[in-house]
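User: quick one, sequence for these tokens?
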């Protein structure tokens, strides 16, 4: 059994393929798991059926990894956490989550932050971080092995300062959002399971998040000035 430490949890994964072990190498740990997920052949076939496209050379190990992520996400609300579709950076010790539909330009925007601020910026996760409320009420963004095509991830957790909803624009502008205005975009980026208990717990956590962190809408161009405008809007100039 593969044992990993993610988001302050010890998680056991019953896996058969080397793909997942390699992906989780930086998260490998020891100890008694808080919970364990198991991936079956039927689950792998269901995951294949969900895929819009399957890249050439993709084997069952890749789909086992996706199933493991789904299984972990199902258990997270019990621990005050959920999987969130976003790219997360670290700036001055705090996390910023940039979220948008796939293809909007999250990776380009993160590269602009790196270009603008260099070593002041660290990448936490490029695609599927875990957000978890700690015992003191702090919402922390954690890296996970599931990090998108770039594979950007670190096994770290940073307090989440803001969520920024990206959209393409003719000029770079950033505006605060109210929790009501951000509610639907947020829910579009959270994996919701089918059982009512898990759904209710996830919705409660999402509602708590909306009232905990700063929320912004960023219309941006692909140039480096987008990072400067975003930073000034979030942290002040």
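Assistant:
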């Amino acid at each position: 059994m593969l044992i990993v430490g993610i988001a302050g949890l010890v998680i056991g994964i019953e896996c058969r393929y080397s793909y997942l072990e390699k992906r989780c190498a930086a998260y490998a740990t020891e100890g008694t798991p808080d919970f364990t997920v198991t991936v079956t052949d039927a689950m792998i076939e269901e995951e294949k059926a969900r895929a819009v496209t399957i890249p050439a050379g993709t084997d069952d190990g890749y789909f086992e990894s996706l199933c493991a992520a789904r299984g972990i996400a199902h258990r997270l609300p019990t621990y005050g956490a959920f999987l969130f579709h976003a790219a997360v950076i670290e700036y001055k010790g705090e996390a910023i989550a940039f979220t948008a539909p796939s293809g909007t330009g999250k990776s380009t925007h993160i590269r602009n932050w790196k270009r603008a601020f260099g070593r002041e910026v660290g990448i936490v996760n490029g695609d599927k971080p875990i957000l978890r409320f700690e015992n003191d009420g702090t919402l922390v963004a954690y890296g996970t092995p599931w990090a998108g095509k770039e594979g950007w991830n670190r096994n770290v957790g940073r307090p989440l300062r803001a969520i920024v909803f990206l959209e393409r624009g003719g000029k770079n502008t950033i505006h605060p959002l109210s929790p009501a205005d951000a509610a639907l975009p947020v829910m579009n980026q959270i994996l919701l399971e089918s059982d009512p208990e898990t759904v209710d717990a996830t919705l409660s956590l999402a509602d708590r998040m909306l009232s905990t962190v700063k929320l912004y809408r960023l219309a941006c161009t692909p140039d480096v000035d987008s990072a400067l405008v975003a930073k000034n809007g979030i942290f002040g100039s």
